[in-house]
G protein-coupled receptor 55 (Suricata suricatta), 320 residues
Amino acid sequence: MNPQLNRSRSCSFSDVDELMKTVQLAVHVPTFLLGLLLNLLAIRGFSTFLKKRRPDYAATSIYMINLAVFDLLLVLSLPFKVALSHIRAPHPSVCTFVECLYFISMYGSVFSICLISLDRFLAIQYPFLVRHLRSPRKTLGICCTIWVVVLVGSVPIYSFHGKVEKYTCFHNMSDGTWSAKVFFPLEVFGFLLPMGVMGFCSSRSIHVLVSRRKLTQDWVQQKACIWTIAASLAVFMVSFLPVHLGFFLQFLVRNGFIVACSAKQNISLFLQLSMCFSNINCCLDVFCYYFVIKEFRMGIMAHRPSGDQLVPQDTMTSRM
């Protein structure tokens, strides 16, 4: 959910609105152009590995394609989001469509990154056991489950604006949208739980790889993997933590816990800025795609079967 700019005669948000129109243009236009190109290239690249029918890379490729599709949906929502901040939508259904597209892609990315991190941890911690469980069919089933979850979870979006006559897309949310029964499940299951899973899996993966330093002959590669895991976790936190902190602060505003006008204005600005810059994540993910594809190609060129390594080949790549 996006901020409700609680406009009243005593507290104006017009300055925040005007500032954000300029910021959105400056951030979303290059994000759209780069994100569109890079995510299409990522989908094409991982599809190529799927066509090669190499089991070592199949699970990772499916996860990455799924994440790239969610990122692509987010990219495609940006032009509509920018346009609807300048003009009024002709019908509420237009707002609902764009808001669904935006939030489905955001939380689809969150869940995809979380499961990629979990999959990698299991493959590093239990390489021989997980190797028999990570079939393309099962991985595809997990990705389909992610889509079902985010589609079902998007149901509250259809009541974002309630029966408000003067609506603005991504604004004027109904009181029910900010109720505890809607907000807390979204905050807990949509972010806090995935963040906890990713934090645990990333820290454990790094711990396992470091503990195996003296047992492996390819420490340089594993060291690069460790740095990539840490960087991926940092990107996740920077992209999504401020947004959900802003959601929580706006929840306090809408439920009367914060009443000072200056505080409301600052919270509105903080939330909109954090959401704006979190969209850059759809471009940052491309760096992870690059390292994964690079690792795949190195493995193919070197003809290194996954069984010869301490950890299967695709688990040692920089997957989110």
Observations:
- Residues 14-315 form a domain with the Rhopdopsin 7-helix transmembrane proteins fold (CATH 1.20.1070.10).
- The first helix runs from residue 14 to 51.
